[in-house]
Give the backbone structure.
Amino acid sequence: MSRGSLYLSAALYEQYFEGLDAVILLRREGDFYILPVRNTSGGGYLLKLRNSAGDRIIIAPDFFRTHDLDDFHKREIRFVWDKDMAGLRAACFFKTAK
């Protein structure tokens, strides 16, 4: 994450979001989720192509600003697949982000 944007490697994108154009960012208590959007008419953040390697970028400064992370500097975020939520989860992200 850097300056309100999330960067996903091509491998991560292909493993969990292949063929999708958008995701939902969600805060649930202190955890941070990236959930796939199957129907883009429902909204969400675009998974924009970042480079020719297939890496993606999610530009979401409004989401982070809403959660008091608008001045957040570059940080690695460790996500794991949460089968119950059917999305990527960064446990305790909002508790440790400040």
The helical segments are 10-16, 61-66, 93-96. The chain has a mean pLDDT of 88.
